[in-house]
Amino acid sequence: MTITKFRAFLATVECGSFTEAAKRLYYTQSAVSRMVSDLESQWGVALLNRKKTGLTLTPAGAALLPYIRQICSDEMRLNGVLQDMTGLKQGVVRLGTVTAVANEWLPIVLKKLMQEAPGIEYEVLIGNGDVIDDWLKEDRIDVGLFTPKRDGNLNAELLHLDEFRVIFPKEHPLSKYKKIPLRVLQDYPYILHGASWCKELENRLKHGKQRIPVRYTTVGATSIVNLVKAGIGVSILPELLLENDKAKVESRPLDPPLYRKLFVVTHGTPTMPAVKVFLERLPALLKKRAKQR
User: Fold this and answer.
1) Where do the structural domains in the chain lie, given as residue ranges?
2) Is the preceding omega at residue 256 within 30 degrees of 0, hence cis?
3) Alpha-carbon gap, residue 282 to 290, rounded angstroms
4) Which CATH architecture has domain 159-261?
5) Cβ–Cβ < 8 Å for 197, 260
6) pLDDT tens profile 278-288
7) Quick check: 140 and 94 in contact, CB under 8 A?
8) Over 194-231, what HEC string results?
């Protein structure tokens, strides 16, 4: 069946190898390779360059990929409509999110959802905002959980205000504050998170014309927390990124407070029943999680 071959080709491109595509599709490696070869023979064009260093798209493969992806997405939506009509609790929800959400929210949320509807499967991809944005527009995922750029082609609903916290070593002079003004941080070496996930903080620093001395720039909340714990400097991180390491350091909110805005984002109106259930249940499950903390 051609749609099966389309899925094999799409999975191979997304996974980067026949072996990984076979694991995703529950086929053998040879079966996936053969289905892609069948498409190439049928159409008379090479879709993939097969080299020892890996697989890459040929010009023909790159040109045909968007159409094949659209056909596979339409087939999933068709199945979703049929499931909705027949009341079947099955389907796939494809999620794209940032590391903090994947680590702190999804294990609890997905566990509960899978108990309620065990027939629904979940695929989770982790990336930064730009990558997740692309995944949505390419129809690689159904839902994004992140901070998007302004884009009229995406539907974004505010899901969570993630408060920024100033972090510093225990018994540090900053511990006398209940809330910390940015100007106070000018007196201490600062460890900057190199990710571009928060324009709000960047804008606050520019607007206030702060001259905070940056001693280190790195990416990774745990690395920053460990540097702060060692007395290298102070930093500012969203509360969600501190979940696993907050006992290592002290933290205070900013004065005035500042938040990273996390959204649930879709490209168009979701039609798949499994996706609609996920979107409907997510806010309530997150509220329940917050109360249990």
Assistant:
1) 1-87, 89-153+268-293, 159-261
2) yes
3) 12
4) 3-Layer(aba) Sandwich (3.40)
5) yes
6) 998 898 888 87
7) yes
8) CCCCCHHHHHHHHHCCCCCCEEEEECCHHHHHHHHHCC
